[in-house]
Amino acid sequence: MIVLTDEQESELTRLARSKRTSVRLVQRARIVLLAAQGLQNKDIAEQLGIGRVQVARWRERYVESGLRGIERDLPRGAPPVKVDVAKLVELTTQTTPEAATHWSTRKMGEVLGVSASTVMRHWQAHGLKPHIVRGFKVSRDPKFVEKLEDIVGLYVSPPEHALVLCCDEKSQVQALDRTQPGLPLKKGRAQTMTHDDKRHGTTTLFAALNVLDGQVIAQCQQRHRHAEWLKFLRQIDRETPKDRTLHLIADNYATHKHPVVQEWLAKHPRFNMHFTPTSASWLNMVERFFRDITVNRLRRGVFTSVPELVTAIDEYIAHHNIKPKPFIWTKSAADILQKVIRANSRLSSKQNGTLHQVKQSRMPRR
Fold it and tell me: Homologous superfamily of 144-322 in CATH?
């Protein structure tokens, strides 16, 4: 039996009659009041229409903690596991799991004794994405700065009465046919394509992107030797105004520097070649056009022959040239150079650290 003071009984009565108190608290106050009157659990349960276990629980909690014991439910479930965030970040950034190249949420969760969702939450909070790897290549060209300033200068401040053309080849463009017809896009289902394909040959796309207006001069050829490159140069010569000086930006592919090509360029002085640094094809803006035609026309295309592929490429370029949109270069040569310097310093420090570890491991033990 519960014995109440006048003050406690008054407070419980107020709660039991209140219309602003939660239904749960009203019921619990009534349980305590009836218990104070000497009623048994089964009688209270029958009177309030609830279970005897529930009556016994709230009687016991009131005896133990008073009013605070019935105001709130006890926390449910297992207590939250505390995560050593510093260790999680250290393991993610400085180690790899056994027999694997990178951490997953489940592998990390097993090591730390937490759930995968907990690991993901902390990874997101710290901007960590172990499942993603990005490619890079820092140029080692001894004339990198000179070539960088030359090409970026053409983009940012092109010469007057001249055209700047970014030129390159997209080689081995495959005419791919699917082994089975796929299903079209519909509500609730993505478009489907077979994972395997039939190959019907390849073509090479030569393209020259006009930096000023985004127009593209293009030509598809079977191969990409110096003879095909020279043929493309002649097309550029035909399709550009004769009174304009031409500045062509290209990579260091041997075809572009072949003696026959050099001889032809010497006879056409309005052509001025500018070569990107080695391992720096990203400086050539025509690569962005190649990316667009790949994503928009080639990757999901179905071609049963090389002529069909060439026709699709020609149609895409003709459509592009109706309303061309130039790619605007925004980075200065100084900004790019500082980024490259930082990358080189980090790579050098890492290589030096690795070399030091190798030397230490090879030192004879005494």
Answer: Ribonuclease H-like superfamily/Ribonuclease H (3.30.420.10)
